[in-house]
Amino acid sequence: MNSFATSLFSRMRLALFRLIHRKNPRIRVGEGLRLNCWLSIKGPGTVVIGDNCVVCSLPGSTAYMTTLYTNAPDARITIGNNVHLVSARFSSRFEISVDDGVLVEDASLMDTDFHTLDISRRPPEDESRETCSIAIGKDVYIGARAFVTKGVALGDGTQVYPGAVVQKSWPAQTFLIGNPAKAFRPQ
Amino acid sequence: MSKLKKLLQLLRSQPATLLTMLPAFARGCFYIVLYRLVSRGRVTIGFPFFCYTRVRITGRGQVRIGKGCSVFINNFERLHIQTLTEDAKVIIGGKCSLGGVTIRCADRIRLGNRILAAAVLIQDVPFSYPVLSSERRDGIQAAPITISDHVWLSGRSVVLSGSSLGEGSVLGICSLLFQQSIGADYLVLGNPGRRPLPIANLLKMRTHEK
Fold first, then answer.
1. CA distance B117 to chain A (A)
2. Which residues contact residue B171 at a Cβ distance below 8 angstroms, ignoring those fewer than 6 apart?
3. Is B104–A162 a contact, with Cβ atoms under 8 angstroms apart?
């Protein structure tokens, strides 16, 4: 009964989601998307979501909906198949690409600094698509309250533990913790 | 009798405090009755429970909260205890102050008496969603967390699996504890927690009085 109700609500949410974004060609959603909580997409950029993705929040938590925001017309968020977004927050100015089987849990991925260091606080001009894009490999786990900054590429199977702030790229199968994130070997 | 005297003294000295305490007390009674009825014995809350904001306890595991705990207002998070598996056990001691604490438990979490906490995340698995869903439950290991009496967990700090804090220790602001066991009377700072500093030496320095 309970699972039936959740599937019914997720279908209603998906219908509403498709109704709202029906005239927007820049948002493409694959088959079998499950919306267990609301997915908010804003901005002028492109958002592509693969097949069998799940968008949810942890049951009973006051945590928030998943947000996929783009800040420029040529910004792009690409999400692969079987990705679980558990109240994740994305903000893109260039490109964020997430591969298959990734779990993002209450974490933020942002590929821009939003402002310059000087007092005018303009949008930064020295950022480019080559240096600032984020690429997340297959089966990466990103834990609660973690943060992935610009220009980071994570290899397949990397696990970012809760509270980590990732500031540079790491190869496959590493375990990251801390601010700034460092690799450790689990016992 | 002495308790009644204390209450009368409080009413005479600061009546506003008592006025805010009364609804909190009523709310606490409501939560005690609610969770006793709803959870079928899995959740037990000790009798004087002062609850200034919402409390949410979910999951199928056991939760025990001691006598005289209070939940203060925190703008961002409420007290939220979630047990991820059926064997999970959360034991909280008496007279704790739990404002904005989030607990996600898959194995065992034990908090002592008289703990101060604010907007803390206590989680004994690195990733909690895979434990809940049947599709992704592989290689996620849980380890118990033990926090002793009189510990102060300050704002936005995180306690992760396999860590323990001794009696009277302090976890600094925005710091993180992971697979470390800290002894009694230490201050821990940093993300991840650096070398603990003994509090007795810090008190000897008394930098603020010079």
1. 18
2. B151, B152, B153, B154, B157, B159, B165, B177, B188, B193
3. no
CA distance B188 to A152: 29
Radius of gyration of chain A (CA): 17
Question: Which positions 160-179 of A are in contact with B (Cβ < 8 Å)?
Answer: 161-163, 165, 177-179
Quick count: other Cβ atoms within 10 Å of Cβ B20? 12
Cβ(B185)–Cβ(B168) below 8 Å: yes
In terms of pTM, does the model score above 0.80? yes
Chain B residues within an 8 Å CB radius of A61:
56, 80, 82, 102
CA B89 to chain centre: 14
Q: How far apart are CA B93 and CA B112, in angstroms?
A: 5
Using CA atoms, how far apart are residues B142 and B125, in angstroms rounded to an integer? Answer: 5
User: What is the complex's ipTM, to 2 decimals?
Assistant: 0.85
Q: Are strands B70-71 and B176-177 parallel, antiparallel or unpaired?
A: unpaired
Closest-CA distance, A186 to chain B, in angstroms, reads 10
CB-based contact, B121 to chain A, within 8 Å: yes
d(CA B165, CA B161): 12
Residue A148, number of CB atoms within 10 A of its CB: 26
* Chain B residue at shortest CA distance from A84: B129
CB of A103 within 8 Å of a chain B CB? The answer is yes
- Shortest Cα distance, chain B CAs vs residue A144, angstroms: 8
Digit-by-digit pLDDT tens for chain A (187 residues) are 577 777 888 889 999 999 999 988 999 998 889 888 889 999 999 999 999 999 988 766 655 788 999 999 999 999 999 999 988 999 999 999 999 989 998 899 999 888 888 888 888 888 888 899 999 999 999 998 899 999 999 999 999 999 999 999 999 999 999 988 999 887 7
* Residue B127 and residue B104 in contact, taking contact as beta carbons nearer than 8 Å: no
